[in-house]
Amino acid sequence: MEQGNQGVMVAKLMPQQQNPIEQLQARFKELEAGFRGWLAKQSLPVEAAVVTATSAAQGAAIGGFMGTLTNDVSSSIPTPPPQAASLNPQAMASFKQAQALAGGPLVQARNFAVMTGVNAGISCVMKRLRGKEDVQSR
Question: What cellular-component terms does GO give this entry (predicted)?
């Protein structure tokens, strides 16, 4: 009976092994919290620049990935005729939007990087100036 109790005690003394994915998630959350804490101590221009750059990098990665999933449709979009100035302004706006979505992975990466970086930078500055999160984002 003594041996059975010792076996139980050894089993209770061994630490529970966490799932490696949970360990990775916990470590990522620690790093993110530390980064956010450091960022909160920075001045407004530094915070805006860092947030804009990191969001632009994320946008570039997403855009590059999206660009690889879609075909290059720039060849299927016709070039505007020389007399395009006489066309309906709504039609020209629609044409410009279609051109913005055309292109390969590098074009998509650039477009996503610009849009996400600018959005994050403006949101960061507005949050710091107003002292609270934007209604639409939280």
Answer: chloroplast inner membrane; TIM22 mitochondrial import inner membrane insertion complex
